């Protein structure tokens, strides 16, 4: 077992001070970044190797780790709109709620959303973007897909409370889902990182879109080097407990399928935005721990104390990863893609 795995194991079971945990995380992240630089970036080879994988793997593990956990944990931890992905902070004094709204608004601009469109959202989380789009574009029909029945129930309840009749939620596995309409826009926020074969995924999405439709994706990424989270590696704590089957794309990965989609426009959010998001999540988590503890007890039983510390470590690790090098090494990609005509 590596030193990092040993310290993570101790950190799961003992109340190690955050300053020490952050130091270990920075050591591990720095070593990972140097290792990626030494190996050299080969996004083209990574994109080609994706064809050997199914569209998504370990979808049951993703559900257990994030999406079938009771909504109340996230209600007490996230911002008011339950955006379980990077927020955007154009000003350093912005609150988490303001960061959620800024990110949602910029997402809609980058996706070129307009009222009256048919919009398909893939991987809708707890409905932050789904409900925002339904509110901002009342003449649009928003169809959102999640692998989680509990997320569907939560979003449907919030839509009913707000009188939103233009929302439809579908529970489905990304490997087999097929829409019953041709969307003007397909949008996805932090779902592509769970997809193992982007070529197969892009092939399906191109076939779904209207001829003049657009695909928009928000995903976290490394600047240069894509890699897979290795659940077989004892030192890969994130893969073991929070991101089984996931990938870390590179900034340019989406551009490596030019026969299917071409890049219309692309943006980079420095990782400092995600680091601040995670830090504010941790502050909420600690502030509301009395409300969170019963949720952890009901979810994890006798292991609830272990998971109390694991969630804290997850937020600390997210802050440390995306804050590395001032947010330049890891960050968030926004990309708008145009489908290549099928008969081209």
UniProtKB/TrEMBL annotation:
<dbReference type="GO" id="GO:0008168">
    <property type="term" value="F:methyltransferase activity"/>
</dbReference>
<dbReference type="Pfam" id="PF02353">
    <property type="entry name" value="CMAS"/>
</dbReference>
<dbReference type="GO" id="GO:0032259">
    <property type="term" value="P:methylation"/>
</dbReference>
<keyword id="KW-0808">Transferase</keyword>
<protein>
    <submittedName>
        <fullName>SAM-dependent methyltransferase</fullName>
        <ecNumber>2.1.1.-</ecNumber>
    </submittedName>
</protein>
<keyword id="KW-0489">Methyltransferase</keyword>
<dbReference type="InterPro" id="IPR029063">
    <property type="entry name" value="SAM-dependent_MTases_sf"/>
</dbReference>
